[in-house]
Amino acid sequence: MVKLYVNEKEKKGHINPELYGHFSEHLGRCIYEGLYVGEDSEIPNKNGMRTDVVEALRAIEIPVLRWPGGCFADEYHWKDGIGPKEKRKKMVNTHWGGVVEDNSFGTHEFFELCDQLGCKTYVNGNVGSGTVQEMSEWVEYITFDGMSPMADLRKENGREKPWKIDYFGVGNENWGCGGNMTPQYYANEYRRYQTYVRNYHPENLIKKICGGANVADYYWTKEVLKTAFDNVPECAHGLMDGLSLHYYVHPEGWQIKGSATQFDDAAWYKTLSKALYMEELINKHGTIMDEYDPEKTIGMIVDEWGCWFTVEEGTNPGFLYQQNTIRDALAAGLTLNIINKHCDRVKMANLAQMVNVLQSVILTEGPKMILTPTYHVFHMYRYHQDADLVASHLEETEPIGTEEAYMVPQLQESVSVGADGIVNITVNNLSVTDEKELFISFMELKPASVEAFIVTGNMTAHNTFEEPDTVKEEKFEAFEITEQGIKAALPPCSVVLFRVK
Ligand code: AHR
């Protein structure tokens, strides 16, 4: 029996809803087919957006959506995606499969989608192949409420009122697909480009995000911050609200990656141990950020994360389409618990990508749609959004696994208290084979009523279009309330939520 101590009175920070954010890229079948089918499609839609997908996404309360990339962002020229659709320029999506991008989903469509989803907006600008003027005019087009060339153009295109940009990314992966820049060069470009990301409206103060490191590239973080803050005049303070971090889990490394559905126990533990590595990345990049920003006013923005496996057989390798199993559910549960626990520094995180690509929450095939195991984890974890993280401590247990280098703890957790006073405890059992007994004790709370939910199955279990409900969120009943707390038996391969009053 493992003990979990919860001090529901000790608040450790606030969990920004944006930690549960998503990412939509012009990549494979994410935008086209997955989210947008066009007004004339036979698939039920509202203004071109798939009704089934929008409804499912609303149910997980997605707080923010990033768009249009990714690597695509630094090749995207926003003016190609406005105006009458038949006149929009067609381009080649060189990064992702070399297919024709007809630009039928552009700025107006993105804001329509966010409106239907009821979420905040995160627009990613083009530094790699775009100009300062282009970026500056995009912001003017979207947010300016007066008479100006760009605001007038927006009105000509049918939108009178400006929209709101909550977050603006100044480039993406500029160390790689976004221009192969050095950190010093990028940081100077960042200083210049962000100057022209203007706040046109006092009620739309745009949060500007600087392009951060890939995985453990601490040199990038150090040098970008050093250059960005070198000799910055007082009046230019506030030039950065966030610094991004990208981290993907590839069980067999970047080249081989590994199958999404056919794997053994060793690959299971390797994947989960790599997902747990997120904690070290946050700590180390966070320590560097502390040097420049001890007050933690700059958010760490983990705007790409997830499992990245080998593409499904028979699909376009450039589309990065992959299935999603119970292993993904665990990887998501672990990552979200880590991010919750670092909510003092991490202010947003975006799973890649929302539909039909990497660790997607939804997969579609023609008019059919399925929810993945990862979807169900986001559904359970939604209670953490906007809640307060509270202190929790799990008694240490023997590490488990099959290889020395990839041992993991059997259980992992995070705990929050919502505005309604309900305590949300999310616990993962990482073992492939073993149930674990857990005893949860509280500082003062005497649990009067407990509701619990679970996502579980064998390690490769997943949903298909033929069998869409193999993995689903279910009520969890294997617990009892005692005088001292809650006693539970967590099955192997499980993600569990307790809601305690
Ligand atoms: O998510 C796929 C790609 O991974 C993104 O476009 C890019 O930013 C990252 O390298």
Percentage of β-strand residues: 25-35%
Number of helices: 11
* Arithmetic mean pLDDT: 97
Q: Which small-molecule ligands are present, each listed once?
A: alpha-L-arabinofuranose
* Main sheet summary: 10 strands, mixed
Let me know the number of strands.
24
**How far is the first residue's CA from the last residue's CA?**
23 Å
Low-pLDDT segments, ≥5 res: none
Helix content: 10-25%
CA radius of gyration is 22 Å
Largest sheet, spatial ordering of strands: 21-20-24-18-17-16-1-19-23-22
Shape: globular
Please describe what this structure looks like.
The chain starts with a strand and ends with a strand. The strands form five sheets. Strands 21-20-24-18-17-16-1-19-23-22 form a ten-stranded mixed sheet, covered by helices on one side. By secondary structure, it is an alpha/beta fold. β12, α10 and β13 (346-351) form a beta-alpha-beta unit. It is 24% helix and 26% strand. Alpha-L-arabinofuranose is lined by residues 25, 69-71, 172-173, 304, 352, 358.
Summarize the structure.
It contains 11 helices and 24 strands. By secondary structure, the protein is α/β, with parallel strands linked by helices. Helix 3 (132-143) packs across helix 4 (149-156) and helix 8 runs parallel beside helix 10.
